[in-house]
């Protein structure tokens, strides 16, 4: 099953995505906001991909592989949160594609999917306070700061989006 926005194709991650995923999380700018900003090893990337694929098998949805113009540019979407009420929104786009509005387009599509397909009432986003770009994307898409939580040993903003039909904007 492939979902499409005006510029993105969203699909279930495949085993063949491992090389892209490994290269993505070896980039320092992708891990700079972590408490331990050490890039992922290839083994950690393989575990990440396996977790994403297992989530799809278990729940029938999860983080998508994000493509534009036939090229993989990242991963993102909603997953079942094991720690907080609601679905957890996350995304990781290749830095070459930052600043093009893809994150906003993805978040809006993920919210529409959560509401229309999953009938979810709440989606959360967990963002380090220093990650101003991600905070702006979530706020632009209707997320509101709820509280600060400790995540992996570091203060993290928990933002939430209560879903109602009127809250879902069409992707731009």
From TrEMBL:
Domain of life (superkingdom): Bacteria
InterPro entries reported for this sequence: Acyl_CoA_acyltransferase (IPR016181), GNAT_dom (IPR000182), N-acetyltransferase (IPR051531)
Annotated ranges, domain N-acetyltransferase: 8-165
GO molecular function, one term: acyltransferase activity, transferring groups other than amino-acyl groups
Keywords (A to Z) from UniProt: Transferase
Protein name in UniProt: GNAT family N-acetyltransferase
Organism: Rhizobium tropici
